[in-house]
Amino acid sequence: MALSVVFLATVGASLAAAIRYKTEADAFEDNKRVAGQWSAAVRAGTVPRTIPARRPVDLVQVVDARGRVTNASRAASEQLPLSRVRPPPDDRFQNITECGTSQGCVILMAIRATPTPGSPVVYAGMTEPAILATNELDIGIAVGAAPIVGLVGWTSWTMLGRTLRPVQTISARMAEITGTDLSRRVPLPPGRDEITMLARTANETLARLETAVKQQRRFASDASHELRSPLAGLRARLEEALAYPDDVDPREAIRGALATTDRLEAIIADLLELARLRAADPVPPERVDLAALATEATGARVNAVPVRVRAPSAVPVSGSRIQLARVVENLVVNAQRHAEGEVVVRVEAVDGQAVLTVEDDGDGIAPADRERVFDRFVRLDDARRRDPAGTGLGLAISREIAVAHGGTLRVEDSPRGARFVLRLRSLDGTPARPPAAGASGA
């Protein structure tokens, strides 16, 4: 509104100045035409005593070199000159505005009849037009602009209210959203303007936040459940040892308590690893030979199930050596847990990707469970039977590390047993392509 007033005031002032300039210029032009006619008559000696003149240029005088009026129109004085200004010989034409005369303010054109020193001067002019002498023009423009200002103000107010109404609705809805209820969404205004884009972005952010909070709550619930079970077992074993000292072997009770403590320690360590992967700053990448890393990580494994590594050549990748070694160890441990006689680890470069495959000859994983095994604390029945002390976090940590390195970790089809495939971008390859259509998983 204020900008509209300033704009219209500027336009009005400019318009008034232009009108005044045009009026004054036209007046001087009319005066010059009439003064030029009577200047020629002076030089010809044909000027009557009473000069005939018509409005608007009705003030005409001929004044001699002594300042006496020799000829005048009826509207002009026959005694007092219209002006004391006399044009010099080298500038015969002059525009003059005189105030204080009997006619008030007048606009004159003074023309020296000849360049000679004693030449008479012809004055032709008119009373200053009211448009120049009064504020009528300004008042008229202001009166004319008032409805425009009102219309602009009403339009601006209406449009601003219509524009801000969705913002108020969005603000009110955002105020209703709390940490306990993130299911609400802000309404999307019609159209494709910036406010609609803002509302859409807010809804997308709320959806991501809701998903993150649900995952956090589920994680907290699963963690508390997984920690409660060994703690309850530990408490029961210790209470039994105290309640029945004659029936319970103290050494066996201590060994059981230590085993439960080891499982608690493993769960807590894995939980801390997950939290660090999510919250810590990225580790500066280094060049890692995935083939050599797989050989080193599996060579240290002592287990009844042998591990064969097939890595005919170096496959360099960029990342954290410690974290990638953790992935290889987790996959090999998981494969040894389910294998019947052998685990095979393959490392190769395929289409610009570094591909690490860990296969076992066990019972395999059902297609319906191939994504579920990467969820936190998920342990299939076979895993619980083969390794009761497991935490159910190894595969979840492995996928977090793979994603943090810009790669993927999936369970894919295999003729026998389970087949885990880690794909990372190879430093010696071209940009990675998606997995083949026959691959299973997300």
- What is the CATH superfamily label of the largest domain? Histidine kinase-like ATPase, C-terminal domain
Gross morphology: rod-shaped
Domain count: 3
Number of helices: 9
Q: Determine the N-to-C terminus distance.
A: 57 Å
The radius of gyration over CA amounts to 50 Å
Q: Mean of the pLDDT scores?
A: 80
Short description:
The chain is of the alpha+beta class.
Could you please describe the fold and organization of this structure?
This protein has nine helices and 13 strands. The chain is rod-shaped. It is an alpha+beta fold and 442 residues long. Helix 1 packs antiparallel against helix 3 (136-176), helix 6 packs across helix 7 and helix 7 runs antiparallel to helix 9. The model is unreliable at 430-442 (pLDDT under 50). InterPro entries: HAMP_dom, HATPase_C_sf, HATPase_dom, His_kinase_dom, HisK_dim/P_dom, HisK_dim/P_sf, Sig_transdc_His_kin-like_C, TCS_sensor_his_kinase. Pfam families: HAMP, HATPase_c, HisKA. Residues 161-214 form the HAMP domain.
Describe the structure using short key phrases.
about 450 residues, alpha+beta, Beta-Lactamase, Helix Hairpins, Heat Shock Protein 90, 3 domains, 6-stranded mixed beta sheet, 5-stranded mixed beta sheet, rod-shaped, disordered C terminus, signal, kinase, EC 2.7.13.3
Produce the secondary structure layout.
Blueprint: H1 2-44, E1 50-51, E2 59-63, E3 69-73, E4 93-101, E5 104-112, E6 121-127, H2 130-133, H3 136-176, H4 194-243, H5 250-279, E7 286-289, H6 290-299, E8 307-310, E9 316-319, H7 321-338, E10 343-350, E11 353-360, H8 381-386, H9 394-404, E12 408-411, E13 419-425
Parallel strand pairs: 1-3, 8-10
Antiparallel strand pairs: 2-3, 2-6, 4-5, 5-6, 7-9, 10-11, 11-13, 12-13
